Amino acid sequence: MNVALYHPWIYLKGGIERTLVELTARSRHRWSIFTSHHDPDGTFAELRERHIVELDRVAVDRDMVSVARAAARIARTRLPAGDHDAVVVCCDGLGSLLNFGLPAVPVACLCFTPLRAVYDPEYRDRQQPRSGARRIAWALAERAYRLVDRRAWRRYDHVFCISDTVRRRVVAGGLHPGDDIELAHPGIDASAIHPSRAHEPFFFLPGRIMWTKNIELGVQAFLRLWPAAPAPMRLVIAGMVDGKSAPYLSRIQSMVEGRDDVSFVIDPGDAEMADLYERCHATLFTAFNEDWGLTPLEAMRHGKPVIAVARGGPTEVVLDGRTGFLAEPDTAAFAAAMRRVVDDPALAQAMGTAGLERARMFTWQRFVHVIDDGLERMVTRRPAD
Q1: How far, in Å, CA of 136 to CA of 79, rounded?
Q2: Residues in Cβ contact with 94 at an 8 Å cutoff, skipping those fewer than 6 apart
């Protein structure tokens, strides 16, 4: 089949972009990619090899006015998908608004999350103004968006969610019935699962460096364990930083000023990230309510224990006490879990071994198979117009 895929913005090296790389490379279908914001130099090199069509360009700023403008433009965008058998809309917030301008073809949603500022209670609580006129404006904008978004979701013939966490958000938001949602877990390459023989004395905290990743939790826990340098362990923080997150990076760096046992690797390549996974003692995952989280799976495929916040997608991946620890999102709890994998190397090794087997349950091969089969069923059962 010929499938058109739309994602509002392709400009980062994140989980969604990695998913697009793997899906379009492994699928038995032929894919055309459309977007409303494309930066080929900012995303994975593999996506530069794909034919990507940029439609009406939208900004990537996240303030209320910019988001409203982007939403309006996406809703007016017309996707030239007439020669395709199906359309897949990637939803991590605004993508579903494209449905208002789609041609009469079967449409599937690949939902990474509905708009978190509206449908994720923890994200929403951190973002919305506390009082005054801005809070009233926020409430009105949220109500209007919910009404429009629910109407856009009616266009979907099939819905994939990347995790049960996301599925519950969709259902709680009144967007789609839960019994008509198929789970498709992004994962790792089955052939790349292998135990690491290196266990150097450092914690690895990987992923995009931005406020939703809650990196300060890992830093604060490390400093609680070892308030003075040099520490017997080190902390390595590595990930991409886009322009809007530069102030956040500066704030995190100021927390460890003068500490040579905490280091940052900015915009690392795939080989550099793999090397850090390979050599670390354990991996930290601090995001406060992640949609899914490829990071724990990457750590597991290298045979490393994972310490993650006990919220969201990681609770579906990490087996507490077996492949790592799920800790409450406070400094003391996170530090206690970190201490356990340091003080008991045998436990850390056993967790890493269990993680290897756990990782085999979540592979790109399985993910793509679910998507391909689901699309074929959708096209077959949809009545001809």
Answers
A1: 34
A2: 8, 67, 70, 71, 74, 115
Whether this model's pTM surpasses 0.85? yes
**Domain 190-359: which topology?**
Rossmann fold (3.40.50)
Q: In what order do the strands lie in the sheet with 324-327?
A: 262-266, 234-239, 202-206, 282-285, 306-309, 324-327
What crossing angle do the helices spanning 246-255 and 215-225 adopt, rounded to 10°? 10
Domain ranges of the chain: 2-187+364-381, 190-359
Element (H, E) at 304: none
Q: pLDDT, tens digit, for every residue of 68-127?
A: 999 999 999 999 877 899 999 999 999 999 999 998 999 999 999 999 999 999 999 998
Kindly list the distances between the CA atom of residue 114 and the CA atoms of 95, 207, 261, 297, 317, in Å, as whole numbers in the listed order: 9, 21, 38, 23, 21
| The CATH number of the domain covering residues in 2-187+364-381 | 3.40.50.2000
For 118-135, what is each residue's pLDDT tens digit?
Answer: 999 999 999 888 888 988
Say which amino acid occupies 361. Answer: M
Q: Give per-residue pLDDT as tens, 275-308.
A: 999 999 999 999 999 999 899 999 999 999 999 9
Specify whether the CB–CB gap between 211 and 321 falls below 8 A: no
Which positions ≥6 away from 224 have C-beta within 8 Å?
331, 332, 335
